[in-house]
Inverse folding.
């Protein structure tokens, strides 16, 4: 009995996820269908990229609220150059590299609070988007570019395959490599990590760089899927991504959690949104339940820290 209780305690989120799937399967016949499952995974693979990138940053003790703006700017750049898909993708990723590096370098050199600085960066990048586009959306995209997301392999959409590959690489990087151990170490105790010889500044900058690149990739894929480069693209996604990471169990103080936790957080929220939509529940209640889950996750994290 004690083993069962310990298992339930250490896998609470997974059990909640399974329980939700069972409830929605019983409540609506349209939930557990191949088309619905594929749609849920495909839809959440794009904003899931932001959550994966943020996992690196949060594990290292930081936060990045500029990821949604980075995604938007990268998507617009890709849309403007869509006549040449390769150039469009490289340009979008280049923006992710620049914003990510800038965030990381300024934060490690200045000591500014990441929350405040990245929030300011989000406003700045959104301002650049509006200044360059004059608030006009671009719907004149090349079919070769938009066709990227329509590609399939073995019946699986390109978006899902890309997301799964990135999750696998991230899991291996964080759990099976020296780099991953350094990320966790910096997030747990930055000063002790520095004294032990870890180049903490490089590690922290690298996490913001990864978040920037994955955000840009999400923006490119979003633009291709919508066949439109919109000035308000990915609006609100930063908080959704943070929600997925925190609800998944990764500590806001760094050093605890991981990609698999984030993955559960992403699809817990996705299943909740999808199930309630199928049941015709007003969208306002989605926000309510997500808020409750976040409050519980933060309280559990705080309680766990006090026990340690």
């Amino acid at each position: 009995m004690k083993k069962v209780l310990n298992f339930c305690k250490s896998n609470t989120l997974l059990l909640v996820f399974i329980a939700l799937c069972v409830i929605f399967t019983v409540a609506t016949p349209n939930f557990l269908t191949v088309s619905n499952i594929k749609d849920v995974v495909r839809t959440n693979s794009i904003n899931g990229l932001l959550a994966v990138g943020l996992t690196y940053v949060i594990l290292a003790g930081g936060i990045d609220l500029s990821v949604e703006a980075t995604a938007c700017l990268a998507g617009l750049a890709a849309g403007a150059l869509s006549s040449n898909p390769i150039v469009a993708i490289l340009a979008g990723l280049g923006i992710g590299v620049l914003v990510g590096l800038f965030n990381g370098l300024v934060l490690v050199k200045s000591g500014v609070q990441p929350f405040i600085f990245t929030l300011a960066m989000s406003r700045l990048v959104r301002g650049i988007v509006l200044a360059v586009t004059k608030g006009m959306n671009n719907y004149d995209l090349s079919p070769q570019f938009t066709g990227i997301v329509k590609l399939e392999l073995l019946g699986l959409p390109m978006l899902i395959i890309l997301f799964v590959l990135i999750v696998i690489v991230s899991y291996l990087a964080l759990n099976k490599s020296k780099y991953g151990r350094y990320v966790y170490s910096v997030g747990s105790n930055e000063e002790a990590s520095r004294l032990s010889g870890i180049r903490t500044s490089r590690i922290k900058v690298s996490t913001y760089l990864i978040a920037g690149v994955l955000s840009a990739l999400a923006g490119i894929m979003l633009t291709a899927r919508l066949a439109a480069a919109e000035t308000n693209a990915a609006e609100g996604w930063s908080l959704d991504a943070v929600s997925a990471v925190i609800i998944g169990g990764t500590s806001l103080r760094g050093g605890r959690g991981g990609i698999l936790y984030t993955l559960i957080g992403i699809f817990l929220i996705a299943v909740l949104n999808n199930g309630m939509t199928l049941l015709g529940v007003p969208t306002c209640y989605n926000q309510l339940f997500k808020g409750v889950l976040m409050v519980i996750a933060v309280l559990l994290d705080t309680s766990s820290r006090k026990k340690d």
Notes: The chain has one domain: 30-307. Residues 200-226 form the longest helix (27 residues).
